[in-house]
Specification:
heterodimer, A: 390 residues, alpha/beta, 15 strands, B: 599 residues, alpha+beta, eight-stranded antiparallel sheet
Chain lengths: 390, 599
């Protein structure tokens, strides 16, 4: 096996375990989008005018969980397109959540926004409500790529939105970017990264395009008119992105996520990967209570109907036993720079020999009592997890 | 006795034997119409699915002739495959005549010929029957010509029928009474009965099918199985009319069953003679021999902790299959298992399929091997049916391998392709004749090891399905044999080794490495597959590692989905064996024997 001499060893730091918080995470799904993006598999509906009903339903749903979860350490308003909500609606949403739930001091409150939705007033309103973190769905700074993705904004709108966010006082700004889009060259991607770096965002998410069945791209792939990235290309993009961002002071703390220092990781997302309980409100939202996971109905109608009748709008549940928990901690653990405790690996009888091989092949390093993936290891994290799955 | 007729139907595979038997059963009204189903006599799933007969069955049918006489017709249905030719010969020995069934759309085939020779050997009356006359592609005139020229029978005697449509059935039944002689024999003479099959019943033990040549057998009699020398008391005798029907006694000339507290079919021998303990017959009936396996393979549980369950299944399987032989075996790569011997490849395939389906065992089967003989410089001869036991090459003086005589019948336009196939398989001494214009009968001496795997499939493919094949074992011949070892990431995998002819070893090594490259899934590291002969690497291939395999996004809702995927993949992994850190799928172990001449 060729050793990957050029590749860095494991990241030389770890996000302190407390950064995920001892508390839980709260997610709110805003199911409205003006148009459906051809790659997006999240639930959304183009109909507008239902925002008030949705808010009212969400209030009733939230009430069902009063006192069930410990204090929330993070809040994430995602979607859909949360930035389609007017300032008044967001204000009412926050009032509701604060009225029902307890939040810890120093809560991380994130809202997802589309670059062409934000203006100074909306940003100021969010700041006043206590939003600490903004996640901007920029995707690219290349107009040709943005057109392929049929985004509503162009590159200059995106740059403007970042500037506005900074002026409004957002000191924790995340930018979401995508690669693997047809017509997008490696050069275009690197220029997008450089443009993003010009704005020195605190957080960068760099996702390879996932072609989901049930999306327009999924249908095109089935018809043979769209292909995903080759393995070789996907690997190159991931490794080069990591190298560039790390050289500019970012830490690569999860397969697709980078933060400018441990203080700026997305605490909410890290909680998912660390197995911290979370509550999801809104259509299609998922929740995790430690030994159970459940998920809400997807169609807005069904969600509204259930909530208005005072029923939990839950579509399905599953129990997470020891077996399931072990598998999840493997598959999630190897996605992050946390890695997994060595004890998790012991289910495979010859785990030491297997781990030894991974270390020799520079895919994993052992740090204390944990096995931690290297950047090379991130590229094949799913396979590494599978090695230890009993 | 004058009213009894014992007969069998012999035919090439797919020529309509089971369908004709079904029509007889319906005509005799042995089952209610609503209980009737196709292939009445083939009781195993695998027989119905593949349209073949594995176990002999008999059925005793009343028949009233056109002249108003009452007859008892005993049909002895025989397996249709060369693997079971000994069983067939014992069944034929129990008859006075046969229906020789020829498919009007295909004409005389290799097994038709082999079956006819077997019938002649037993001096049986032969009634040619031309089947499938309703088919649009039936060529009755040409079939008649083939019956005359290839079989040397009088085609005017042939009866036309369509077993599917039910036409000609009465003509056949009538001909059975008129043209097949009644059995001879003396009911008062000492008992001499021929065992031609035995089946296992969980409540009654072995149920022996037999034909009485002389004497009378009753419940309560003390009988002896002559070759084994064991004695038993008869609990029940009777005849099969689909279900067992008890009779007070069976006499010379009759065909039926006996239950005598015999535990398993392995406590009986097909071809053995049953006689009375207190009044034995002077000599056993002729033709008995011990059947010996010709093809060997090792089996292992896919998961090593399932060994005990496999051992238990083997024991239960053996209750009903006396020709399976097996013993404990162990492999460095695969752990505890069994070395098994089979009558042929079909027998092996049936075993594998039934073990998986009826006994729910997941097994790894190594590539089949024949029995090689090695004469050592010390003068000692050792017999090797497992490549693992290949002797130290320095000690070998010379080696011998088994040869068969293959008979291949085909339209003459395929001669070139079939000659090439046989020569590629180290065939020797070709002879051929033109039994009828346009058709060739080709005889070849071939090493058994070259036909055990996929020869028949290849023959079918080069003759577009028109070639047919039959063989008999000939002798052992000197041969240059070497052992081909397979190394996976530097580790020798004993269960992948094969013994091959020296001239072909390098080519085979290349083929095997290439096949394994396709069978072994990608891992996180590069996998080297090497073929070695006597420690020298002669072929190599590599399985490239994964370069990227990770989902880009994994948040709240994805976690369950992702775990489910992982569970599925982990389950697939359990179907593989880990050698070193390389997972090798079940299929790889047999794939080594597949050749790819066309590539």
């Amino acid at each position: 096996m060729k050793r990957n001499d050029g590749s860095p060893a494991a990241p030389a730091w770890r996000v302190p375990p407390t950064a995920g918080g001892a508390g839980a995470g709260l997610y709110v799904h805003v199911p409205f989008c003006r148009t459906k993006c051809p790659y997006c598999g999240f639930y959304s509906t183009p109909e507008s005018g239902n925002e008030r009903r949705w808010l009212a339903a969400l209030e009733r749903e939230a009430a069902l969980y009063r006192g069930v979860f410990p204090a929330f350490d993070t809040l994430y308003i995602g979607g859909g397109t949360p930035s389609l909500l007017g300032a008044g609606d967001v204000s009412r949403l926050f009032d509701t959540l604060r009225g029902v739930f307890v939040f810890s001091a120093g809560v991380e409150a994130t809202i997802e926004a589309n670059p062409d939705d934000v203006d100074a007033d909306l940003l100021a309103a969010w700041r006043r409500l206590g939003v600490t973190r903004l996640s901007l769905g920029v995707q690219s700074f290349d107009d040709a790529v943005l057109r392929r993705l049929r985004r509503r904004h162009d590159a200059s709108t995106a740059r403007g939105a970042i500037a506005l966010a900074r002026e409004a006082g957002f000191a924790n700004l995340g930018v979401d970017l995508m690669y693997g889009i047809e017509g997008q060259t490696f050069g275009s991607w690197m220029r997008t990264l450089e443009t993003a770096l010009d704005h020195a965002p605190e957080h960068l998410s760099c996702y390879e395009l996932t072609i989901d069945a049930g999306t327009e791209f999924g249908a095109r792939r089935a018809a043979g008119t769209l292909r995903g990235m080759s393995e070789t290309a996907g690997r190159r993009f991931l490794l080069e992105t990591s190298a560039l961002l790390r050289s500019r002071g970012y830490i690569h703390y999860e397969v697709s996520n980078f933060a400018r220092g441990a203080a700026h990781v997305s605490r909410h997302n890290l909680a998912y990967w660390r197995g911290v309980p979370y509550l999801g409100l809104g259509p299609s939202a998922h929740s995790f209570g430690g030994d159970e996971r459940w998920w809400n109905v997807r169609p807005l109608d069904a969600y509204l109907g259930a909530a208005e009748e005072g029923r939990a709008p839950v579509e399905g549940r599953e129990t997470i036993g020891e077996e399931e928990r072990a598998l999840e901690s493997l598959s999630l653990g190897f996605r992050t720079a946390d890695g997994v405790p060595l004890a998790t690996l012991r289910r495979r009888p010859d785990w030491e020999a297997v781990l030894d091989r991974l270390v020799r092949d520079s895919l994993v390093s052992v740090e204390g009592d944990r096995a931690v993936p290297t950047i090379e290891g991130f590229c094949v994290a799913d396979r590494i997890a599978l090695l230890f799955a009993a | 006795m004058a009213q009894i007729r014992n007969f069998s139907i012999i035919a090439h595979i797919d020529h309509g034997k089971s369908t004709l038997a079904d029509r007889f059963i319906q005509r005799a009204k042995l089952v209610e119409d609503r209980e009737f189903h196709d292939q009445m006599l083939d009781t195993m799933d695998i027989e119905r699915e593949r349209g073949i007969t594995i176990k002999s069955q008999t059925v005793c049918m009343p028949y009233t002739s056109a002249a108003g006489e009452q007859y008892i017709l005993n049909l002895i249905d025989t397996p249709g495959h060369v693997d079971f030719s000994y069983e067939v010969s014992r069944a034929l020995a129990s008859c006075e005549g046969v229906l020789l069934l020829v498919d009007a759309t295909q004409g005389v085939q290799a097994q038709t010929l082999a079956n006819m020779y077997a019938a002649l050997e037993h001096q049986l009356a032969i009634i040619p029957v031309i089947n499938k006359i309703d088919s649009p592609s039936a060529d009755i005139d040409h079939t008649r010509v083939e019956i005359e020229t290839e079989l040397g029978l009088d085609a005017d005697d042939a009866i036309l029928c369509s077993a599917k449509e039910g036409t000609g059935i009465d003509d056949i039944l009538e001909a059975i009474t008129l043209r097949i002689p009644p059995p001879a024999g003396e009911p008062e003479a000492p008992l001499a009965a021929l065992i031609f099959d035995a089946k296992y019943d969980p409540f009654r033990g072995a149920i022996i099918s037999f034909r009485i040549f002389d004497g009378t057998i009753r419940a309560g009699d003390d009988i002896r199985l002559m070759s084994l020398g064991t004695s038993h008391r008869v609990e029940e005798v009777g005849v099969f009319r689909i279900d067992r029907e008890r009779r007070p006694a069976l006499r010379a000339g009759e065909v039926g069953y006996v239950i005598a507290g015999i535990k398993t079919v392995s406590d009986t021998r097909i071809g053995d003679t049953i006689t009375h303990v207190d009044r034995p017959v002077a000599a056993p009936l002729p033709g008995f021999r011990e059947v010996k396996p010709v093809v060997f393979s090792s089996i292992y549980p896919v998961s090593s902790e399932d060994f005990d369950a496999l051992a238990d299944s083997m024991e239960r399987y053996k209750l009903n299959d006396a020709s399976l032989v097996y013993q404990r075996d162990s492999s460095a790569a695969l752990g505890q298992g069994f070395r098994c011997g089979f009558l042929g490849l079909l027998h092996l395939e049936i075993f594998q399929e039934r073990l998986e389906r009826e006994f729910d065992q997941s097994i790894i089967m190594t590539s089949p091997s024949v029995e090689f003989h090695f004469v050592l410089k010390s003068g000692e001869t050792i017999v090797v049916d497992n490549p693992v036991h290949y002797p130290d090459p320095i000690a070998i003086d010379y080696a011998l391998e088994p040869y068969i005589r293959a008979t291949i019948l085909m339209p003459d336009r395929y001669l070139g392709a079939v000659m090439k196939l046989c020569l590629d398989r180290r065939g020797e001494n070709p002879r051929y004749g033109y039994p009828v214009p346009g058709r060739i009968e080709l005889l070849f001496d071939l090493p058994l090891s070259e036909v055990v795997y996929d020869f028949y499939d290849k023959l079918k493919s080069v003759t577009q399905g028109y070639g047919s094949f039959d063989y008999e074992l000939l002798d052992y011949r000197r041969s240059e044999l070497v052992k081909l070892d397979i190394l996976v990431n530097g580790e020798r995998v004993d269960a992948l080794a094969i013994v091959v002819h020296a001239d072909r070893a390098r080519m085979r090594a290349v083929n095997v490495c290439e096949r394994l490259r396709k069978e072994i899934p990608r891992h996180l590291f590069k996998i080297a597959i090497q073929g070695a002969i006597g420690g020298k690497i002669v072929a190599r291939s590599t399985v490239a590692p994964f370069r990227k395999d990770v989902t880009a996004k994994c948040y709240g809702g994805d976690i369950t989905r992702k775990r489910k995927l992982l569970e599925k993949q982990a389950k697939g992994k359990k179907k593989m064996r880990t050698v070193g850190q390389v997972m090798i799928p079940q299929s790889a172990f047999v794939a080594v024997l597949k050749t790819n001449e066309e590539e």
